[in-house]
Amino acid sequence: MINSDTKQGVYAPLCQTMSDSESEEELLHRNHHHARLQSKSTNPARTPSNLNRIENHLMFSTTEILGNYSNVEGGHVPASWTNTLPEKKGMSGGRKILFFLSIGLCIFVTVGFLWLLPCSDSATCSSGEKKIKTHNWLRDYEKIELKGIINTVTGLKGRGKNLIFMYRSDRVFAEFDENDHHTNGIISLIGRGGQVAWYDEMPEEPKSIDCTLLDVDKNGEADCLIVGQMGQLGALDPVSGEWLWHISPRIGNSSKIPEDAVDFPLILPDLDGDGVKDLLQIGPSETNQHNSLFLISGATGRILGKSYTVAECESVHKLTIDRNFRINLSCWRNESSVSYVKSLDDLYRLWTNNALKVDALSKPETIEQHRLLGQRKNTENQINIYPSGGKELIIENRGKCPHHCNMTVRLMDEKQNHEVLIRNGTGIYGMVPTILSLNTTKSTLNGFIVKFWEWTPAAGEFFRKRREFPEIIRNHTHSPLEPILRMRVLREVVLMILFNSTDTRVINTSQNNIVQFCLEEHGEEIFCQPDLNYQENSLLIADLDEDGSQELISYYTTFISSDNEKENWRLITYVQLLRLESELAKLNDSEGLN
């Protein structure tokens, strides 16, 4: 149960439904109402009523039908009936043989389908069945934009790993009812084929997710922690998609919360002794300033004790904990940021009026924290360095895209101090790379896979009256002038940089055209879909089928239209999986890098 103490004032429990009676297969086939997703690969049959909606799970109710034999008085069979019954005769020898053969055939068919034939995507395999290898696949999902990092989680037993993403729906050409706020959420895809395992809708857009930090139900597998744009915090079971707990802040004036101030919670040692690490989260104070610290139970989502408000700060963010159990944060006041430090022991006394036994706690340096991958949204000049195999990939992005940005990517040899220019240019942005390392028959092959966005001149502009924009876009603009909805055409390029001890090679692996729509006021972009910041962590290398090989998972979002009419633009996301070993083997055979 979530603490409902009214003195806390700023967090309230959200309703949730859970069932502990579902089987593993049933957990992957739950129905979610008012869905906005569709995978065309998994639902080829379309009608006007289900177009652009995913209906990948059906629920059936059974009704027991009882016969009514009221015409048989007292439940007794009339005597006249017994005179018409035929005399029983035994089966002939031939019929007996056929009877037993039919039974044997039924047994053979049952055994064959259950154990002899390989499992299909929807079949139930024996736990001792050999794991099915992942194959290359490409699927598309309508009416959603995937965002943020790609999470890998353990799926059903013997089925390999699954993928978990955050998503938001179409914000530009929205066809949903504006009163229906369930347009964001979390979606899980089956790793070996890309089918939708489950999805859960959220009332606000998810901002960040991490499925590696906290084992809420203590089953040996980490659960997913999710933070919403306006401070919602929840824990979700990655296999079933059921919310284990979630809480939401009551915010009177959200405009007082600075952009990017809603941070991921800090993971603390287990302070309440329930076997699950606890959380430190920033929330609103009674004056609606973003400057209160809340201690939250990792096991239940309850707020432990009362909040502590850092009164000298207008807002606080960037929580960290050092090896001496001191909480460090950035305190924002008078339009500047200063450091603020307070011991965990002092905070615990303020929260609960009890002393903290620090000696019994896990050391902070042994506790993994959420990592912010990629660049900060409003930081225009950044240099990021990624090491692998004795070399460093240096990605430098300068300026603000698409008009005033340029990029340089270099590969530096740490030992020889030798530098190779990989790519540079204007109107280009380099995203977060994924690192690969493969052992071949001759040597170890290392490298990076990195994605770029390259803007081309706009293909056209659309002008609309503000009242015709969806509410979510109208809320972004405060100008009396009519906003401009501009269409941009850009190219997404994926490069593979491979090297061993003697050779380096750069391979252009794929190119995709992307249509992006941006809302502009006074020449400044205030809203874009797809969003560059949402896409820069859209590559991942992982072993989904746990066979020792590696797979590359990538996604991108675009708008498509068959006739270029404004009303017919559709938002669509593509997700692709490639088995790296097999793809690299083709390159090695043709070009000779081993």
Descriptive notes:
By secondary structure, the protein is mostly beta strands. It has seven helices and 32 strands. The strands form seven sheets. Strands 23, 24, 25, 26, 27, 28 and 29 form a seven-stranded antiparallel β-sheet that branches. Strands 1-11-10-9-8 form a five-stranded antiparallel β-sheet, with no helix packed on it. The chain has a five-stranded antiparallel β-sheet with strand order 2-3-32-31-30. A hairpin with a 6-residue loop joins strand 10 (233-236) and strand 11 (243-249). The two termini are 58 Å apart.
Q: TL;DR of this structure?
A:
With 594 residues, this protein is mainly beta. It has helices at 24-27, 79-82, 93-116, 344-352, 471-474, 532-535, 580-591, and strands at 11-13, 38-39, 137-142, 144-154, 161-169, 184-190, 196-202, 206-214, 223-228, 233-236, 243-249, 266-268, 278-283, 292-296, 308-309, 315-321, 326-333, 336-343, 382-388, 391-400, 404-413, 418-426, 428-430, 434-439, 444-455, 460-463, 484-499, 504-521, 524-529, 539-542, 551-560, 570-579.
Could you name the key traits of this structure?
7 helices; 594 residues; disordered N terminus; mainly beta; 5-stranded antiparallel β-sheet; single chain; 7-stranded antiparallel β-sheet
